[in-house]
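Q: What structure does this chain adopt?
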Amino acid sequence: MQGLSDIPPQDRDALLADALPLASANHAGSHQAGRHSAPAQPTVPMPLSLMLGIATRAEEAGRVDEAEPVAAHLLKAVPDDPRVLHLAGVVAFRTNKRTLAVTLMERAIAREPRNGLYLRNISEMYRVVGRLDDALGAARRAVALQPGDSAALHNQAVIHHERGEIEAGLACSRRAVGLRPDMAGAHFAIAEAQLLRGDYAEGWEEYEWRFRMPGVPFLLPVALQRGRSQWGGSSLGAGRLLLIGDQGFGDVIQFSRYIPWAVARGQPTILATSNEMAPLMRRMFPDLSIATNWAECTMFAAYCPLSGLPRLHGTRLDTIPPPLPIPVDPERGALWRTKLDLAIPPGLRRVGIVWAGRPSHRNDRNRSMALSTLARPLAEVPGIALVSLQKGDASAEVSSYAGRAILADAARDITDYEDTVAAIAALDLVITVDTSVAHIAGAMGRPCWVLLPFTGDWRWLRDRADSPWYRSMRLFRQTAPARWDEPLAAVAAELARL
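A:
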């Protein structure tokens, strides 16, 4: 069957132009049945159901730019058709028009309240916009209508998890896996729940499903996958082991503590990592071969992501290896001490701050905040100077800072992670949301206070103010979703006591 992507753009536009009057005529004709005039007999270039099918397949394949004009035309033509409202809502959600998406989906459900698919999809929309009670209600209705829908159960599990109802979410994930044993997302949800609970035995095993999830790229290009297997932990003899710095920058730092254990298995080892992390890794592991592109990684016997090493190590809560210290480049260390001496009057405590993570992170809407939110209580604490370590688009917020405390913008002169290390070494304390800066400060053994959302990442566990991964770290948690006032008040109070 020909899809929209197979039709030349000029013909596609003409097709949509023809289809819109057709759908409008059909829709309007139903309201004119009592008239004596003969009904219109439009040419039928493409039935509504066929257009819906084409647009739906395009959206499901990730070709939202193809689905969007079709959905817009159909919404004009038949604005009360629940199938059209549902499609338009999904497309709006995919294009980050979230308020519109929820409105359209609610209209679809009002017309077809027992459609489990609509309820399943709106549960995810409600979750993303922060309406967690509505999300859970819709997910439960979806599951009640379609008890065999593993995706609806998975949605419910994710909602429970975000609400802090970890055991309830875990139960839903297990039911989803029971219905569909190969459902990678449900397995990964089990991993996150168990790791968050500190049950590392099952958690690490289920964590291996992360690379089977849709949209998650495999670690190696296809050409390198052939004939190479994932390392099982035993010596490869003369064969080389390729370790891969996967996931985020913070993960590379957190799991780098396992590199000496892997090297000690007895085989030559090479670490593949990003250009951003390579200088730091070379300073931490001066004797390790480090590559920053796949062309340097053709000769190896087996591979393993760094995030897979805790499973092979058999890590449990009481056997987490200490982090490897991150050495400070002496020249940069001296330079950053001088920079901060010139920027900050003597006698003030130097507090580094980071308020936002990478926007593409799947939980960034919960973990990040605005500078004004973070600085409002902290800037009132006497005797401190704030030092921005914030990189990325959020760093522009420094220009609108109006707090009482001095704010020095160190990030302007930070060019790489070695600069970040040197700057942190010249600070008294780092206060940050859950970003790579927290891992750097923790690995350096520097005092670091981390602000966590209501349900934090698995590595920070539950109900703890400390971390077994970094002994110099303190954790300040939200007590309700999207509420930073309480943890920030606690941070400001502790800061005032120093």
